[in-house]
From TrEMBL:
It is found in: Membrane. Belongs to the nucleobase:cation symporter-2 (NCS2) (TC 2.A.40) family. It comes from Microbacterium aquimaris. This is Solute carrier family 23 protein. The chain crosses the membrane at residues 54-73, 80-99, 105-130, 137-155, 161-179, 186-210, 230-247, 305-324, 336-357, 369-386, 392-410. PANTHER family: PURINE PERMEASE C1399.01C-RELATED. InterPro entries: NCS2. Keywords: Membrane, Transmembrane, Transmembrane helix, Transport. Coiled coil: none annotated.
Length: 439
């Protein structure tokens, strides 16, 4: 694994140049940029455990551990921060409600193992088989249905404190259009701060747990439950998330390659293996599933510093923050109204990313197969379809994803046989991560 060479004078980045992954600035500047990466990821990362009921310190711990693991697996050549993925929110929410947190953690572990397995195949065989399995119309439908499936959850929280929720939602939207660059990318985080202040002034926050929590202490751990009869039914609803994580990681690698060196694309398989390993470790011990982060891509683009040294600093900082139970309880004190406002925007944005895949790839919706691939999948997700056989239950995400894949591939097979016009799609689109604010 290469060590970092000093870039230039170690203090500045020359015009038209970038600090490569195997370079670094002086350690003071590197530490400052690493801290900036923590700030960039923080707003989105803490929301996932708050929304799913997972311990915030545990999620932060495995976010930092996952980032360091990612750097090791990719041989220190691919800069990335692994934060909480919003793609897990819907299956985790459904799983904890029906089978408990242990089963939900088992689902996260299953996703991590499958993603790592896909990474091994990609490392040796390339991405062509994924392109054929998940063309843009299918990828867009699966990403969109994960976001839209969460709409009832947002509405439930919104109704608890509608005024606070409305102010939070308006703040998120305003910050996204008022500011450019970094501040615009963290509009969701800023909206949460505004909503929290409003809730504080309205007397909607209880600080009892914050006051009682220790300043320093180990995070809370919980082991994934693979023994419960309900677990295997729960795992099925997590599997579509693998397709989203593939698209996110591919998009991240392509983004870094575009801004640094095309040879970075050779590490796509390792990136998938690394994220899979990080997700597996997190899920096994009580943390949220991980993914690469768009916010951190934004920081790299703004600073022109792609040094992996900064991410070692960011990972270590996240681990240190996780050792404060008081920090975790502070985030747990965020009231339902604030969560309702921010998730109304956030869950919708996840859905819009899926639709953007259709737009960017010019999916032809004059073709019946494409029409039904998207239409059926989205209605299944929004309505919350379920199927159950005894203790085994399939939720809307897995049903909708299966519907999209079956309608597209079987429909096109019939269309080719009948010569009525098949649409065989194109390569997998590189999408922005679902783990944070839109760019």
């Amino acid at each position: 694994m290469p060590v970092w060479s000093l870039h230039g004078n170690g203090r500045t980045v020359e015009p038209g140049k970038v600090v490569a992954p195997t370079e670094r600035l002086n350690w003071g500047a590197t530490a400052a940029i690493g801290m900036q990466h923590v700030i960039a990821m923080f707003g989105a990362t803490f929301l996932v455990p708050v929304l799913t009921g997972f311990p915030v310190p545990t999620t932060l711990l495995f976010s930092g551990v996952g980032t360091i693991l990612f750097l090791l697996v990719t041989r220190n050549k691919l800069p990335s921060y692994l934060g909480s993925s919003f793609a897990f929110i819907a299956p985790v929410t459904a799983a904890t409600a029906t089978a408990g947190m242990g089963s939900a953690l088992a689902g996260i572990v299953a996703v991590g193992l499958l993603l790592a397995a896909v990474g091994v195949i990609v490392q040796f065989a390339g991405l062509g088989w994924i392109d054929r399995l998940m063309p843009p119309v299918v990828a867009g439908a699966i990403v969109a249905l994960i976001g839209f499936n969460l709409a009832p959850v947002a509405w439930t929280n919104f109704q608890v404190q509608p005024l606070t929720a409305t102010i939070t939602l308006v703040s998120v939207v305003l910050f996204s259009v008022l500011f450019r660059g970094f501040l615009g990318r963290i509009s969701i985080f800023l909206g949460v701060i505004v909503g929290y202040v409003v809730a504080l002034l309205s007397g909607e926050i209880d600080f009892t747990a914050v006051e009682q929590a220790a300043w320093v202490g180990l995070p809370e751990f919980q082991i994934a439950d693979f023994t419960s009869p309900q677990t295997w039914g729960v795992i099925a609803m997590f599997l579509p998330v693998v397709l989203v994580l593939i698209a996110e990681n591919v998009g991240h690698v392509r983004g870094v390659a575009t801004m640094t060196d095309a040879s970075v694309n050779r590490h796509t398989g390792r990136a998938l293996i690394a994220d899979g390993a990080a997700t597996t470790v997190a899920g096994f011990f009580g943390g949220s599933g991980t993914t690469t982060y768009g916010e951190n891509i934004g920081v790299m683009a703004a600073t022109r510093v792609y040094s992996t040294a900064a991410y070692w600093v960011a990972g270590a900082t996240a681990i240190l923050l996780s050792l404060s139970p008081k920090v975790g309880e502070l985030f747990n004190s965020i009231p339902a109204g604030v969560l309702g406002g921010v998730t109304t925007a956030l869950y919708g944005l996840i859905g819009i990313i899926g639709i953007k895949i259709w737009v960017d790839n010019r999916v032809d919706f004059s073709r019946p197969v494409n029409q039904y691939t998207g239409a059926v999948a989205l209605v299944i997700a929004i309505a919350g379809f379920t199927m159950q056989w005894g203790d085994f239950q399939l939720g809307a995400i897995v049903i909708g994803s299966a519907a999209a894949l079956l309608i597209y591939h079987l429909g096109n097979a019939i269309a080719r046989a009948r010569k009525t016009g098949a649409d065989d799609g194109g390569p997998i689109p590189a999408v922005g991560p679902l783990g944070g604010d839109p760019e």
